[in-house]
Amino acid sequence: KAGVTQTPRYLIKTRGQQVTLSCSPISGHRSVSWYQQTPGQGLQFLFEYFSETQRNKGNFPGRFSGRQFSNSRSEMNVSTLELGDSALYLCASSFAGTYPNEQFFGPGTRLTVL
Amino acid sequence: EDQVTQSPEALRLQEGESSSLNCSYTVSGLRGLFWYRQDPGKGPEFLFTLYSAGEEKEKERLKATLTKKESFLHITAPKPEDSATYLCAVQEGSNSGYALNFGKGTSLLVTP
Fold it and tell me: Which residues touch A71 (CB under 8 Å, ≥6 apart)?
């Protein structure tokens, strides 16, 4: 079974630009979550999508947004990039059933903002 | 506020020297506690799920245990290939959906 895939793997952008990251979950998984990982803050939850609806959102500004498609694939967008947005962005998928609900991570997209 | 604290931040072991990593948590209603392994530049790799106090899970040289306030990841006779960052995460559920709240991790280095 193929794992979670994320594209692109690496991105370099400049301040003020916007970026879109893509995530394809494991086949059959309906929940997709996004996380930001930085050396200082560690892994922080951004948002979760289930059945094309955002179910939960972390404490991030509105510049961070996302969506999920009918095939469960998800995208996240960051507008008006800031230097502090440089991070590893991780997508995780889960089957979406009862708790505990195990999440499986992709390799991440490394975003560098210059 | 819910919190997940891992200790130590870094740990250096000699090959074969067993030790334990700690994850203490404060959540209003635990729906699951997870251990992940993360190698540099890669996404976290799922290791274990724990839910009930007293529960134990094992995989090769790793054993995870859970109490009402903390979890331990025991590493028996580690090898250099066990070197990685080990992350603990809790899932509260309810209004939080499936969101995971992570600790900062323990960076483990096993030397030959």
Answer: none
| C-beta atoms of A44 and B91 within 8 A | no
Minimal Cα–Cα distance from A44 to chain B, Å? 7
CA dihedral B36, A9, B98, B67 (to 10 degrees): 10
DSSP letter at A44?
A: E
Min mean pLDDT across A46-55, A92-101, B88-97 is at: B88-97
Q: Across the interface, which of A50, A102, A107 has its CB nearest the CB of B49?
A: A102
| Tokens at B80, concatenated | 């250099």
Query: Rg for chain B (alpha carbons), in Å?
Result: 14
Among chain B residues, CA nearest to A10: B41
Q: Which residues of chain A lie closer than 8 angstroms to B84, CB-CB?
A: none
Q: Which of B33, B42, B97 sits opposite A55 (nearest CB)?
A: B97
Please count the other Cβ atoms lying within 10 Å of the Cβ belonging to residue B90. 26
Q: What is the secondary structure of B41-54 as a DSSP string?
A: TS--EEEEEE-STT
> What does the pLDDT look like over A63-107, one tens digit per residue?
999 999 999 999 999 999 999 999 999 999 999 777 888 999 999
DSSP label at residue A85: G
Q: In percent, how much of chain A has pLDDT > 70?
A: 99
- Per CB-CB distance under 8 Å, the chain A contacts of B32 are 99-102
Place of tokens 């991440």: A108
